[in-house]
Amino acid sequence: MIDYLQNHQADVWQLFLQHVVLCGAALGLALLIALPLGVLIARYTALYTPVMGLLGALYTIPSLALFALLVPLTHIGTMPALIALVIYAQFILVRNVVAGLRGVEPATVEAARGMGMSPWQVLWRVEMPLALPVLVAGLRIATVTVIAVASVATYVAAGGLGDLLSEGVNKGPVGEGEIEAGALAIGALAIMADIILRIFEALSARWSGRAAPAH
Question: Domain 2-96+133-187 adopts which CATH fold?
Answer without folding.
Answer: MetI-like fold (1.10.3720)
